[in-house]
Amino acid sequence: LVSGSRSSKTFKPKKNIPEGSHQYELLKHAEATLGSGNLRQAVMLPEGEDLNEWIAVNTVDFFNQINMLYGTITEFCTEVSCPVMSAGPRYEYHWADGTNIKKPIKCSAPKYIDYLMTAGTSCSGTSDQTKRLIRARWCVPGVPFPKNFMSVAKTILKRLFRVYAHIYHQHFDSVMRLQEEAHLNTSFKHFIFFVQEFNLIDRRELAPLQELIEKLGSKDR
């Protein structure tokens, strides 16, 4: 999906869930239900499963999906073309991780997304919320969920939504030229149904794509 000319800085390797683990079995369940075509059913918590585990597995899966999607358009998303991380003229996003960057900073879209993707693929250190979640659940499988797991997961999903919003507002023409709009739309619809099912992103945060969200949802009523 990614040509040699595209930047490898932001496009990060997939974060794989160890085969044989319970998380891996949950991911396979998710993939099987997605194959049914019923996305609302696919996002529902499987009977008898732990909510935190289900959210963790899906968060990593969405991370990988968005990582791949963004990787296809990195040559169009540059410091020059996207000097701020935004979703149209009304929404601008600043980065802070609470540790290394405590006060939110204005940065380009590729820089913002690089901060997010780098944090999500690193097992070294615990410098921000994303690394703490990834380290706790994937670099050291089987350790208990941290007490602040849900708030950390919500922060990650909120930031992943912002990548979707940026792609739709700033790069959808490029996505169409690459003939990847169906892939993007299906991925985003899955993501939205999931965060709505468990109330993981504040409605105000979804405002940049509210019209699209309503359109996607209306088709399943």
At a glance:
The chain is an all-alpha fold.
3D structure, described in words:
The chain is an all-alpha fold. It has one domain (49-218): Up-down Bundle (Butyryl-CoA Dehydrogenase, subunit A, domain 3). It has helices spanning 22-34, 39-42, 51-71, 109-121, 129-139, 149-177, 181-197, 210-218, and strands at residues 85-86, 92-93. A two-stranded antiparallel ribbon has the order 1-2. A hairpin with a 5-residue loop joins strand 1 (85-86) and strand 2. Helix 1 (22-34) crosses helix 3 (51-71) and helix 3 packs parallel to helix 6. The protein starts with 21 loop residues before the first helix and ends with a helix. 33% of the residues are buried. Residues 1-11 and 123-127 have low confidence and may be disordered. Pfam families: Mob1_phocein (PF03637).
Distance between the termini: 33 Å
Any low-confidence stretches, pLDDT <50, length ≥5? Answer: 1-11, 123-127
Q: Rg from C-alpha positions?
A: 17 Å
Strand order of the largest sheet: 1-2
The name CATH uses for the topology is Butyryl-CoA Dehydrogenase, subunit A, domain 3
Helix content percent band: 40-55%
**SSE succession:** HHHEEHHHHH
DSSP strand count: 2
Total number of helical segments? Answer: 8
> What is the highest CATH level, the class?
Mainly Alpha
Number of domains: 1
Please state the structural category.
mainly alpha
Protein name: MOB kinase activator 1A
InterPro entries: MOB_kinase_act_fam, MOB_kinase_act_sf
GO molecular function: kinase activity
Keywords: Kinase, Metal-binding, Transferase, Zinc
